[in-house]
Structure formats: C-alpha cells, structure tokens
C-alpha cells in the first residue's frame, strides 16, 4: 500500500519557520507527481507546492518566495521549508501524490500535519 507520512508541523509565531517532511513508501516514487496541499478550517483545499512534469517547481501565489519544496530521492522523502510564516498559513498540510503532472488534484495523501501560526 502507498504510504505518505508527514511530520514537522507545530505552532510558531508570525515570521517563524518550519520544515515539513514526508516519508513515501509502498510504490515507485515519481518526483513529477509529488507535492503539498493544505486545508484550513472552513476553506477549500489549496495546492501549495509541487514538482511538475516539466521538472519545474510550482508554488501557489500565496507562498511564493517563502516556501521551498525539495526532496531526497535516495530516501524517498519530500520536504517543505516554510519561512516568514503568516497566520493565514495556518492549516493542515498534506503530502500528496497528484493525479497528473500538472494541476493540484491529489490521488494519494497522508494523514496531514498541523501548522499553526499566531
């Protein structure tokens, strides 16, 4: 079975940083489909960062310049470095395998890790 296990969430003050990790197992890791989305209470799911089929990194406008997606392919681990955090970044963050090489439709995702910014 596919397993995506997130870690690294927590509570930070405005302007702080967190690094989320996602350990991927159970299937062939495909960089071009991996990324992160988030869901805040009462809001729609929002794509945050991902790799795409062109080999590029894609970011939501709301996080550009503050968040960085990276990976350790040898460890099948995905990361999301989040700097200059704002209260509006408060959400549950999910590591995901997206359905296509572009777009934000998730096919598989983990249990999520909570990020709270105050």
Describe the structure.
The chain is mostly beta strands and 118 residues long. It has strands spanning 3-7, 10-12, 18-25, 34-39, 46-51, 57-59, 67-72, 77-82, 91-98, 106-109, 113-117. A hairpin with a 6-residue loop joins strand 4 and strand 5. The model has no long low-confidence stretch (mean pLDDT 95).
Shape: globular
* Contiguous runs where pLDDT drops below 50 for at least 5 residues: none
Query: What does the radius of gyration come to?
Result: 13 Å
What percent of residues are in strands?
over 45%
Biggest sheet statistics: 7 strands, mixed
H/E element order:
EEEEEEEEEEE
Strand tally = 11
- Fraction in helix: under 10%
The N- and C-terminal alpha carbons lie at a distance of: 37 Å
Rounded mean pLDDT is 95
In brief:
This protein is an all-beta fold and 118 residues long. It has no helices and 11 strands. The chain has strands at 3-7, 10-12, 18-25, 34-39, 46-51, 57-59, 67-72, 77-82, 91-98, 106-109, 113-117.
Task: Give the SSE layout.
Elements lengths: L2 E5 L2 E3 L5 E8 L8 E6 L6 E6 L5 E3 L7 E6 L4 E6 L8 E8 L7 E4 L3 E5 L1
Parallel strand pairs: 2-11
Antiparallel strand pairs: 1-3, 3-8, 4-5, 4-9, 5-6, 7-8, 9-10, 9-11
Considering the chains and any ligands shown, give keywords for the structure.
118 residues; mainly beta; seven-stranded mixed β-sheet; four-stranded antiparallel β-sheet; 11 strands; 0% helix; 51% strand
């Amino acid at each position: 079975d596919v397993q995506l296990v997130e870690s690294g969430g927590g509570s930070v003050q405005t302007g702080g940083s967190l690094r989320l990790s996602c350990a991927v197992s159970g299937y062939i890791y495909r960089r071009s489909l991996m990324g992160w989305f988030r869901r805040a209470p009462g809001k729609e799911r929002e794509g945050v960062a991902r790799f795409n089929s062109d080999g590029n990194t894609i970011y939501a406008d709301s996080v550009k310049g503050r968040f960085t997606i990276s990976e350790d392919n040898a460890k099948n681990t995905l990361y999301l470095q989040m700097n200059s955090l704002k209260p509006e970044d408060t959400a549950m963050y999910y590591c995901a395998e997206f359905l296509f090489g572009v777009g934000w439709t998730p096919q598989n995702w983990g249990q999520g890790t909570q990020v709270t910014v105050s």
